[in-house]
Write a structure and sequence with these properties.
Layout lengths: L5 H19 L9 E6 L4 H17 L5 E6 L2 H8 L1 H12 L3 E5 H6 L3 H6 L3 E3 L2 H9 L3 E4 L1
Parallel strand pairs: 1-2, 1-5, 2-3, 3-4
Length: about 140
């Protein structure tokens, strides 16, 4: 006994194909309203007067819904040695900014524990940063 005619099977196949095509499209990346700031500079003026000022302002003013600050390279050492910058990072975290640091960089400067003490997530950053880039996050580097 035949349950479906050839026409019905073809129609079913086309419907499934179109449904798969529609559901396989990626939704608009959540990153469009997300900012990842890559802070690499060891210059305290760049940190205070550009990088942290803009990053904090972007969150507080609502320019971006999600804001992450990534401490990478020489900025890790600067942050670990500068109490004024540490206070600023704590304030930024209270305002909802996620602060992450590259563990390889922090370990190379022997500052991982200090960064953790001020509430920085010290983690391998290659994969997260790649994810931000691939998912449409807006990025800035200082």
């Amino acid at each position: 006994m035949r349950f479906f005619s050839n026409t019905v099977l073809i129609m079913l196949f086309i419907s499934l194909f179109l449904l798969q095509k529609t559901s396989a499209q990626e939704p608009e990346p959540a990153g469009r309203d997300s900012l990842a700031v890559l802070w690499t500079s060891a210059d305290p003026d760049v940190a205070k007067k550009v990088c942290l000022m803009y990053t904090h302002g972007a969150k507080k003013a609502g320019w971006f819904k999600t804001v992450h600050l990534i401490v990478w390279g020489p900025s890790a050492k600067l942050l670990a040695e500068n109490e004024e910058l540490q206070a600023k990072i704590k304030e930024m975290k209270k305002d909802g900014i996620r602060v992450e640091a590259c563990v390889v960089c922090a370990d190379s400067y022997n500052v991982s524990d200090t960064l953790r003490e001020i509430g920085v997530d010290v983690i391998p950053m290659g994969r997260p940063l790649t994810g931000y880039l691939k998912n449409g996050w807006r990025t800035l580097t200082f």
